Amino acid sequence: MKFSLGSIMTALTLTILQSQFLDHPFRSFVIGLLLVPLIYLAITEYLRKKSRIPSFNGPPGLPVIGNIADIKYNAAETYRQWAKTYGDVYQIQLGNIPVIVVNSAASARVIFGQFSQALSSRPTFYTFHKVSGYVSLRNGYLG
Q: What is the mean pLDDT of each run of 10 residues along the chain (143 residues)?
């Protein structure tokens, strides 16, 4: 039976970690307490960068919160300043969620006028459709 170097290293690492945890539980707890937030930050930052739409530029945000701190006070002025740097249409991050900002009437007419069919759908809201007994004539049933 052949073992790869990676599987041997993984088994050895797990054995060492297990013996360290059993021999030094408090130290292991403290190290885990420090590592968990770092791992969380690394994962959320990766997801935040991955969720950005590649064709739009925009201001970089802080880890985890994105650009929320930048628009906390006087968001309109901040958007105007960003429009000077990134153009009339740019992207910001609100947490891990990318948001496209359309900052001029001309850009809004182009985007929402030419692509109106793609942007005209409405989401299904659970509280309206499922809880309130919404009557759907289009689908022929009582909610």
A: 76 84 84 89 86 86 86 89 92 87 87 72 58 51 47
**Domain residues for 13?**
1-51
126 belongs to a structural domain: no
DSSP string, the chain: ----HHHHHHHHHHHHHHHHHHH-HHHHHHHHHHHHHHHHHHHHHHHHHHHS-TT------BTTTBTTTTTSS-HHHHHHHHHHHH-SEEEEEETTEEEEEE-SHHHHHHHHHHTTTTT---PPPHIIIIIS--EETTTTEE-
Q: Does a structural domain hold residue 11?
A: yes
What is the pTM assigned to this prediction? 0.59
